[in-house]
Specification:
By secondary structure, the protein is of the alpha/beta class. Helix 5 runs antiparallel to helix 6 and helix 15 packs antiparallel against helix 16. The chain is globular and about 80 Å long. The strands form four sheets. Strands 9-16-15-10-13-11-12 form a seven-stranded mixed beta sheet, with helices on both faces. The chain has a six-stranded parallel beta sheet with strand order 1-8-7-2-3-4. The relative contact order is 0.12. The protein is built from 23 helices and 18 strands.
Length: 538
Amino acid sequence: MSGNLCSLEALSSSFQVHSKPRETSPLEYEATKPHANNLKFQKFNSLAESARELSNKAIFFHFEETLLKSPSLFPYFMLVAFEAGGLLRALILFLLSPFICLVGGELGLNIMVFLCFFGIRKEKMRVGTAVLPKFFSEDVGCEGFDAVMRCGKKVGFSDLPRVMVEGFLKDYVGVDVVVARELKVVGGYFVGLMEAKNTNSLDSNLILGEKKSDYQAIGIIGCHNENMHEQLFSHCKEVYLVTEAEKQSWKSLPREKYPEPLIFHDGRLAFKPTQLATLAMFMYMPLGICLCILRFLSGIFLPHSIGTPILAFTGTITTISKPKSSISSTNDKGEKQRGRLYVCNHRTLLDPLYVQLATNKSLTAVTYSLSTVNEKIAPMKTVRLTRDRERDGKKMEKLLSQGDLVVCPEGTTCREPYLLRFSPLFAELTDDIVPVAIDVKVNMFYGTSASGFKCLDPVFHFMNPNPVYSIRLLENLPGSNTCKLRGKSRFEVANYVQNEIGRALDFRCTSLTRKDKYMALAGNDGSLKGSRKVTHHA
């Protein structure tokens, strides 16, 4: 299905919603603007290929034209409609997209703004900081990004509402000033209308303030942007024009060049919702619901020996790898020891179930925030923890005396190839610890959410056409790296297990916690500047 989505992306160029008309050539544009004779227009390639120093330059750039490769704004509005407004609003936007494409320009933009934002509560609008940064980052062109990042002070302006772009531009690109239109609010709810453009706010003297004399301003715009702000570019000695032909040859910005690592993001959609990809999603949904029901019934009511082939037949892919040698659960006298502790990273709520499948044992899972619905239908024993270290420790000690236990010490899920800090509580309980490395791949919906209904997490996961679960059981923790046998501190043991799992998955270890994740996705501090600590494995 992911291959189909990619092919649909390629075809969508014939049916795109643009934010600006495309009939004006660069020469016509220059001749029709009265201020054009006062500006020095140059080709963007001359700036991108230049090696001159730009750190003393202030750059004024149009966000959509300078950074984004795709000329269509429809996918970003569809993300707002789906994630903030729900399935029905997304369907309405999709059905009206041909009309929006027909009218185009400012009117088309206003229609999309109204459809996506009307009636949305302002306080709960987190899509701009929790969802869109991921998709913006994946659409950024390397050439445009490099040109912007070479400059000192950065001023970005956009035709999109401020609530959609400000979080990404400030937190992930490092833009100093964002010039965009506000949305009108009545009674705490968006009414779907943008405020009138305030020309005073576009004065470069006000934007640069007292340091204006320290910078020589340059500008970057698209040659088809009819809404170029004259006041904003009036002090630019050079203005560079980006053409569509140039953008077609741009390369996507690699993840390692992101100014800020993209660790946390929210939302259900795992693909870029272009028009054709969105059509494929709506057409697939009835089948996806049927597959989800069949997979649920097979996993809950049938034994693994029967349910696993059925899950494979419906498109789920499960890979399990085990170490060559395994420590027995009995001592030298053949007596049963205390339960074994399986410690895994956390990708979805289904992690303990897949660990149970991989071990072919009856396990008990300890959880922090499992919904009541999921707790009742889970085909394995689950025990809720309280986040009280002393009480949780006693509870887990008791469970280990009764059998094997599986725990996710990160305390919350993480979608990207990073590991959050491992809570050290498990390290004090036993020396019989088995690290388990888990990875999950989806191609349509994410089975995790920080702001949505958690009871629907397994539903969205099983609605994917081909969800992939990879389980890798690692070697038992050596005695030299345990608390009781060698006197290691619980923090040393937790860090060792985190690094072993990270090395097995080629993930990067961080010191971020559950609190950091929810602060980021709740909109309180989306950038986590100053608290993001990422370390590389040796």
